[in-house]
Amino acid sequence: MAPRFNPKRDLVDLHGRVIIVTGANRPLGLGYSTVKHLASAGAKVYIAARNEQQSLQSIEKLKADLHLDPSDGNSGQVHFLKLDLGDPRDVKKVAEEFLAKESRLDVLVNNAAMVFAPFEKTSDGISKIVVTNLISPFVFTQTLLPLMAKTAQEESSDTRIVNVSSITHYIANIKKLENVEDLNQEYRRRPLAKFTRYAHTKLLIIIWSRALHKYLSSLSSTMPGVERITVMALDPGNIDTFSNRWPLPWLWRPFVRLLMTAPNVDVGAYPTVFAAAGKAIYTDRGKYAGRYLNEKMNVVNPSSNARSDNLADELWTLVEKITNDMGL
């Protein structure tokens, strides 16, 4: 039996590495624990989130809990990057500001997501949850690609894009992705429409990851280094990041945890941390590039929709058209 993943033992050297984790501002959230592990290993990590006050409080907590010392060259660092995924135009500006600020970017973890929300469209006519979970991360990633490609050209580089999806993607079904309405699936006839719309975006994330891997492979002649960026999508598993917000959480928590795949959020972050910085991926990039990982950190096949090259090509063409129409 393979030894259990241990972030204190099984991560690449992160000293001098720069990482962005989106949506990591809530202390009991998956993104926060991901930042905790990566900063503890010596990385300079940006929490990219909308809520500045909560993010800054979380950063102070991380500094205290991890004993981070800015004057110590071996110490990890945590910084705030204000990012609202509600409008791709603002997202591009934030990414451009980051390019002007930093000289490298080793890892991008697209973790932030809208979960259960009423069906609404933005002024661009696109479902809000699709904008937040797919279109804006697409724009953010594309804008940061030149810096990641530059970083990837360095000797012994290990540059990665990690897109957090979910096992819930299996309940969504996509037949085609030719126009905006194919993205704007409302699932009105489903008994759990909000949940299914969330699952729909998680399926789109895996399809996008597949398309992104293919896209990067085609750019090697025009953007040197980009073919060395490892793209992965993953399912972090069932993690209890919510029972603390219920009435009488002490009463419900034992029952909720019976359904969870990890005993706590810090352990629940292991799959994301592994994808972001696991040694095993560095030593065998070909095994993981463009693939989907489950909560056990194994490469597995996602749904048939998620494995469709045709849907991947359609999605890439469609999202490029949408962002071009936005002037991005």
TrEMBL record:
Keyword annotations of the record: Oxidoreductase
Domain of life: Eukaryota
Pfam assignment, any one: adh_short
Coiled coil regions in record: none
SUPFAM superfamilies: NAD(P)-binding Rossmann-fold domains
GO molecular function term, any single one: oxidoreductase activity
PANTHER family: PHOSPHATIDYLINOSITOL-GLYCAN BIOSYNTHESIS CLASS F PROTEIN, PHOSPHATIDYLINOSITOL-GLYCAN BIOSYNTHESIS CLASS F PROTEIN-RELATED
Protein name listed in UniProt: NAD(P)-binding protein
Organism of derivation: Lentinula guzmanii
Lineage: Eukaryota, Fungi, Dikarya, Basidiomycota, Agaricomycotina
